[in-house]
Amino acid sequence: MNDSLVSESRTRSSGSNWKEIVAKYQVPAPWRGAWQVVNTLVPYALTWVLMYWSLSVSLWLTVPLAVIAGGLMVRVFIILHDCGHGSFLKSRLANDILGCLAGVITFTPYFHWRWEHSVHHATSGDLDRRGTGDVWTLTVQEYLEASSWKKFAYRLARNPVVLFVFAPLFLFLFRERFSTKGAGLRERISVYGTNIALLLYALGMDYIFGWKTWVPLQLAVLMVAGSAGIWLFYVQHQFEGVYWQRREQWDYAQAALQGSSFYKLPRILQWFSGNIGFHHIHHLSPRIPNYNLEKCHYSEPLFQTVKPVTLLTSLKSLNFRLWDEQRHRLVGYAELRSKRTSAG
Asked: Which one in 7, 242, 333, 340 has a CA-CA gap of 20 to 30 Å to 263?
């Protein structure tokens, strides 16, 4: 029996009690949440001051500071993310207020993002419900039957340069400025309100730093944060051994534990990414605050069966392009060419 079948059987056998296992970690700790806000926003503000000062000294100082600021922006986004799940603080109102503030800092309309992200959680790993809040993924058959234009668009969208360099700026500067089809009134208002807040934020930063200084620095920080964020999200659901099933076979617990990765990062990167590498647990129980995810993983035997993805092994994800339903795994374009050669 291979590793995926062993993991699947253990997941099913523990399916009756996983809710009891995670329940004890779902209680927010206000003091931990408050400390995370402080140790994220204060260094973020300080880094901006240091970046401005470094411009008069050397760009060799500015660039690493921009990288640090980008990492801290990722951490701000994780706070927004937890607030969206109602897990960061005990009060729903406090979560929403903090989430809206974090949304301005990360150029993300909080309520609109929360709505799209809830769809992602409800459909992750389901081949019949793809398309909202996920990375565009076609099956081998869908790709072979696609038009030339769709194949070109798909290859472009999945190109690493487009996905991790151009897409982040497009997403946070342009895509998040508009609501999507099906968004409710509150979600649309969230987009408009965030846009107005960002305009005021830009005017304030222009007054403090001057637009010729602020704009390049903000773009650099957004690029670092956006690229890192999209990479994290990509690896969390595009990795060797990932779970995908059609609707009738789809199972929530399996989709969480096998369809979301345990991205085992070095401690410093784990801190900047707010423990989001424990994504298998997060998808199993979004109500667990990020500061409880690590303890939950290492304290419960259920999660010891999840094979970690490391920085090195995560590079394999760059070669994954399509889902092969026959072999139940992600494949690259090269395997399509080999199939055509053998068929010919």
From this structure: 333
